[in-house]
Design goal:
2 copies of one chain form a homodimer. Chain A is mostly helical. The first copy, chain A, has helices spanning 8-22, 29-35, 40-43, 50-73, 78-95, 97-102, 109-113, 117-127, 137-157, 168-184. The longest helix of chain A has 24 residues, at 50-73.
Chain lengths: 189, 189
DNA sequence: TGTATCTCCCTAATAGCTTTAGGCAAACGG
DNA sequence: CCGTTTGCCTAAAGCTATTAGGGAGATACA
């Protein structure tokens, strides 16, 4: 019998593709086995269990997203950097909804430590170098940006902004204008 | 044999409590049957299927949240209204994480039409009456507020802001200050 | 090249959740 | 008081997850 050539990496990549097709929640060890034309039990030599598989997909997505962010940020500053990183998140979520959903998968502390999570926080903070914010306002602003990026993208993905004017791209652009303005005029109590 | 007194309403309420205890994703027809000390099949006379149950929980949560929002908004305007509604969302999510998660459950168009969803949109728009925004900026602002509320709350719930200074309450307050300032000084291109 | 080992995928089995079909007895209406 | 309706039950099939243990291809080494 011909061996299927299963590896954790191949399973993870196929799992990510499956997530984009059917949704991250619907990623199943059984379906993955079906795609490799292999019995379900065979996957358990390469992946600890279903949670382990999902964790690996999440780590993959976080890396991909951080890589895109890093590339987009190179050589940019200020509003240019802000919109570049924001677009990276939004575009990634639209291109890879399952992978994007995977980035919200709750990671164990160990998995989180080895993830690209810190790179994401670092990138958002890097954007703020183009604005004159000092601690603790810088941290507040990091949290605001994270909230807007994630919030907007997830509402848009859920269909919240379709079927109504103005179109989503328009709102996105104007919201980024507004955030830039806010960061340049951050209020002090 | 004593009848258990199952009704769609009781199942929905119990389902909502279950969601808050174990997470919305973990709400299961089986567990619900166990809690009513009844066989699983019995639930299927009162609820069409698992999706129907989750939809009912989502509708319940949306109603509760809209009720709280309406009560909080009564007699308030401007920044006062903004923080009141924002706190309603955040507090509800912290008190009832499972129910809050349920509000993100994708509803069928019919279910969505009969839901409290429109009330939520209406409330956010009502807040903006205290600021001088005209269309389409008002819609952009509605979307921004929705994104921040949902984004912040869901990142906070996922543990994103714990274990690091400044504490989350502090950021929340300052972010609402910043949003108020932004709405009073909304940039025009 | 032959053989021993190791690796990979398999069969088999258990257990939980979902959903449908059909039955019996309690509750209710006249 | 009896017939009908209603509510919960048993039974069964299908899907997913996970573990235990086996056989055969690939590899290493003589």
């Amino acid at each position: 019998m011909v061996r299927a050539g299963l590896t954790p990496e191949r399973l993870t990549r196929a799992g990510a593709e499956l997530a984009d097709e059917v949704g991250f929640e619907q990623v199943t060890v059984s379906e993955l086995a079906r795609r490799f034309d292999v019995r379900v039990a065979s996957l358990y030599s390469h992946v600890r269990n279903s949670e382990d598989l999902k964790t690996r997909i999440a780590l993959l997505a976080l890396e991909e997203l951080a890589d895109r962010g890093g590339a987009a940020l190179a050589g940019r500053a200020g509003k240019d950097a802000l919109t570049a990183l924001a677009d990276v998140y939004r575009d990634y979520a639209r291109e890879h909804p399952g992978r994007y959903a995977a980035t919200r998968f709750p990671l164990s502390p160990e998995a989180a430590a080895g993830s690209a999570g810190p790179r994401h926080a670092h990138m958002t903070r890097a954007i703020l170098r183009g604005y004159e914010l000092t601690e603790p306002d810088q941290t507040h602003a990091v949290r605001l940006l994270g909230s807007v990026f994630h919030g907007y993208v997830s509402l848009e993905l859920a269909g919240g902004f379709s079927h109504s004017a103005p179109d989503s791209q328009e709102s996105w652009t104007r919201i980024l204008d507004a955030l830039d303005s806010l960061l340049r005029n951050w209020p002090t109590p």
